[in-house]
Amino acid sequence: MIVSTFGFAGNPGSPSFVRVELRFERGILFRISGFSSQAARASHARIRSALIACGQRWPGKAITVNLAPAELSRTSTAFDLPIALAILASRGVIPASALTLKASAGELGLDGSIRPWQTSIFENRINITSPLSDSNKIKTLISPPLSGYSEPIFPHETFTHLSDLIAYFKSPTQSKNSSNNSKLLLKASSTITIQTQSESTFENIQGEETAKRKAIIAAAGSHDLIMLGPPGSGKTVLAKCIHSLLPDLSPKHHSECTSIHAAAGHLFNPNSKRPPWQSPHSSTNLNGLIGSWSTLKSRGVIPGSWSLAHHGVLFLDEFAEFSRGTLEACRSPLESHTISLVRAAGSSELPASALLIAALNPCPCGRGTGRVKSCSCQESEIKRYLRKVSGPVADRIAIHLELGHELTEPSTASTSAMSWTSARATVARIRKWNLEHHGDDRFSHGPQMTPKAADLLHSCRTVLKLSHRGLHHVRNVALTAALVDDSPSIELEHIAEAGASRLFDRKTWLR
Ligand SMILES: [Zn+2]
């Protein structure tokens, strides 16, 4: 007899249903299709010990487990639970029919405890994709307790011990109180490592009206920003202000953040809807920033700071101090908002739609300002220092900002006096509009560019020597600026303002 049920595979943020089929055969071998013999042996040891701990007998037969579809990564320990249930159904301990419309995931402890799966995410049905045609009939998900404030959309049962789960299958109506125990266990065992962020407002910044306006534009349009300023010029405060300007996470986005943080072994803000804030130190290596494959085969990918900041802010202070390789690796998430981790056994894609805020001193000693030389650094040293972040990386960042002295660039008086409350409301209004309008649709439905503004955009390319990408940024930032002003059209000053945000593109500026 073949017993069939469902499990999960895939990446945090995009889990997928996998069919688990199990059959007893002659012999003693334990095989799982697609698993190495080492991973299958480890799985066998856990499941066998857990079943025996629950008073069950291990079948004296060979067991073959098939996982479909074959191309999905399936080295996960999350298959312990569906395999154990399929063994119990094959032995007639629980009804096999009860498994066909259920999906389960969880790692088994030797004592029968059910441990959280690293990539556990079931809060949101929308996130679960499946190439299996019959998976849309799945009625219930079974797993260890999950973090997250949102109520699961999908019918969901949580258990912390296999013996509770066996009792549930034997008599589903009598043993549904297990979720209470689960919550207690979660509280006791969770290692909570959340980077919390108290709210910063513009009241923490003196003057710098241009910078405040750029902060609103960056937060509203999700424009990545790089700022240059001497120590104490308020770079960190401004970054925190941008984070504070972002609206609360939707339940769907909160759910995505929860799953990514779970993959890294963190519990993500269960009681707060605030978007994530990540500020890794400049000594962070490539793996820490971008993510990596775990050396433990069963764990799959470990998200880096960029993915942990998904839907929030990634603040990279002392940007020029990051290693060259790490800076180069920023190019892909800046462009595609995803991170591809490739290895011999396959590749994995991590979501990385974070708002990047990079900050750096104007020169190695910190006192210079790029244009006015007031420090003791050699010109060649400054060139080397700034070259590290200019070029391909800065080209992909929409807004370049210089702090420490006001620039002589157009800034609309109305927004410079904007209150914190109206700034937050403006950001929320534009972000909502951006969700409803994509790509060129934003330019056809949003404020229209005046002929004078269009002329200036054209001349930007030659005068500022902008790259194609730089020009694209100017157009996008100008649109957001017009939306911030609630202007019916993209005016000359919006283009001028956005063009002035391309510091690193100016060859003369780099000397
Ligand atoms: Zn210097």
Compute the number of strand runs. 20
Largest sheet: 5 strands, parallel
The hetero compounds bound to this protein are: zinc ion
Structural class: alpha/beta
Spatial order of strands in the largest sheet? 11-14-17-10-18
CATH fold description of the largest domain: Rossmann fold
Give the termini distance in whole angstroms.
Answer: 76 Å
Number of domains: 2
Cα Rg:
27 Å
Mean pLDDT: 80
Please state the overall shape, judged from the principal axes of the Cα atoms: elongated
Low-confidence parts lasting 5 or more residues at pLDDT below 50? Answer: 119-127, 148-153, 174-196, 407-415
What's this entry about, in short?
Helix content is 36%, strand content 17%. It is built from 19 helices and 20 strands.
Could you name the key traits of this structure?
single chain; 511 residues; alpha/beta; Ribosomal Protein S5, domain 2; Rossmann fold; four-stranded mixed sheet; 19 helices; 36% helix; 17% strand; binds zinc ion
Blueprint (SSEs and pairs):
Blueprint: E1 2-11, E2 14-25, E3 30-32, H1 37-53, E4 62-68, H2 80-90, E5 102-104, E6 107-108, E7 114-115, E8 140-143, E9 156-158, H3 162-170, H4 178-189, H5 209-221, E10 225-228, H6 235-245, H7 251-263, E11 277-278, H8 286-290, E12 291-293, E13 301-303, H9 305-308, E14 313-316, H10 324-329, H11 331-336, E15 338-343, E16 346-351, E17 355-360, H12 379-387, H13 392-395, E18 399-402, H14 413-416, H15 420-436, H16 441-445, E19 448-449, H17 451-463, H18 468-484, E20 489-490, H19 492-499
This protein binds zinc ion.
